[in-house]
Amino acid sequence: MATAADGGGHSLDFSLAQQLTVIVLCALTAFISHMALAVFNDGVRPFLLDFIQGRGTRSATTAVSFGLSAGFIFGLGAPMALSTGVLNPWLLFLPTDVLGLLSPKKWLAPLLGGAWGAVVVFGLDGANGLAHDLPVDFLTAMQEMSTPILFLFTLFPVLAITRQFGKVRGAVAGVVELALVLLTMKLWPDMFAGALAMAVGVLMLIGFAVVKDVRQRRLDRAGLLRSAAPGAGGGGTGAEGSAADAGGTGASVPAEDPMNSLFSASAARLRRYLPLFMVLGAGVCLLAQMHVFGGGEATSFLIAKGDYAGAAQVDFYRVFGFVPLIATTALASGAYGIAGFTLVYPIGYLLPNPWLAVVVGALV
């Protein structure tokens, strides 16, 4: 298959197999987004909980998705694809997030997603040629538009903690995230500096929520015990006395694991659609194996140069920064990530043939 690297790093002329893969994958991701099963944008995922539970409308959720994605699409995804000749998830999957949520009908979502995939594979080559024929290089400047947006995502957990648990805990979370940003820039310069900080911020948010839930349940159980105490000492006999004694000892108030109550419903919902997620993983891994797709900011440039091993190494390291974020937001919201834990990216780059990529991607 022809790759972007074969054309000097700036070709967006895809083979038929590559075109079909992109179109079908975009249709699938739009359908999954419509079902609120998965989205690519980590910032949108927490908002899906209200939509899934019926507290939010489709139009409101779509507006949130577009607002949090537009900057990445036009400031990162499109300029990077034009400058490298390699597709990326911000260009493919963020628009299908929006189109899937926007679609009022289930059957319309894959049509809109497939149409976007067709626009990408058939329209970007002309746009790429036009952009590089201009006397002014505006693509590099457009890429810088995404930088402040990326760091703003790091503040979301801090703002949520401040709003729900007070300014003191919010300040603590802010200091921790700032320290992690500086530490990441120093120790792991190839990783986005805000990735680890945002992951830890989300974990702190979940931790504060669990602690609050535990305390509330203890207070509720204590209230039940106090209300049952007069009945226990009121001289009840027989079955009534036994029931009162059981209430007095707290045996009738079983302790409930707060983590289980918080995550079990979301995990069960995701497990029901495991076959669909396997198809999605197979498609993403296949696209990565075709070497016309890069999963990260630095990866696209490495793929364009033909350095697939280097691209796999970079994206493999990025997995560890995003696993906590993806896992916690998925379990808390009931919506997974389009690329899963993103492990399909480095695996796909290194696999020797597309059939193996399909099988391994489905398993991962």
From TrEMBL:
Residue stretches spanning the membrane: 20-40, 60-87, 107-125, 145-161, 168-185, 191-211, 273-296, 316-336, 343-363
Keyword Transmembrane recorded: yes
Chain spans, region Disordered: 231-250
Domain of life: Bacteria
Signal peptide start-end: none
Keywords, comma-separated and alphabetical: Membrane, Transmembrane, Transmembrane helix
Residues in coiled coil: none
UniProt name for this protein: Permease
